[in-house]
Specification:
ApaG-like; 63% strand; mainly beta; Immunoglobulin-like; 128 residues; 4-stranded antiparallel beta sheet; 5-stranded antiparallel beta sheet; single chain
């Protein structure tokens, strides 16, 4: 799990190994991650884009960038939150992810990156 607050935006990540969609014998491990984005600040914000840095257990790094999350660019008023679940395939039983969500304040067009602290993706040891 990871939890980070940037300019009043709290991002909580809970990773989970998805055993029924993984095939360790073939070197295929699927992980889900559950994200909560909570606006604890005093300004309305909109999530515009995402940037993920994914590192597998062998040190191979992949970066993923794109608009929004799961097809949405949510607007969060103070006190509101947005939750979603996505997934990440890895060729190793352990890896890490971190990144940021680019946010904008609609009233002022000020933008900032809400950081996502590193978190570990790990299959249960009995499967490795």
């Amino acid at each position: 799990m990871s939890e980070t607050v940037t300019q009043g935006i709290r991002i909580i990540v809970r990773p989970q190994y998805v055993a029924d969609q993984s095939d360790p014998a073939a070197g295929h491990y699927l992980f889900a991650y559950h994200i909560t984005i909570r606006n604890e600040g005093e300004r309305t914000v909109q999530l515009l884009s995402r940037h993920w840095v994914i590192t597998n257990g062998e040190g191979h790094v992949e970066e993923v960038r794109g608009p929004g999350v799961v097809g949405y660019q949510p607007v969060l008023q103070p006190g509101e939150q947005f939750q979603y679940t996505s997934g990440c395939p890895l060729g190793t039983p352990v890896g890490t992810m971190h990144g940021e969500f680019n946010m904008v304040v609609p009233d002022t067009r000020e933008s900032f990156d809400a950081l996502i602290s590193p978190f570990t993706l790990a299959a249960p040891r009995s499967l490795n």
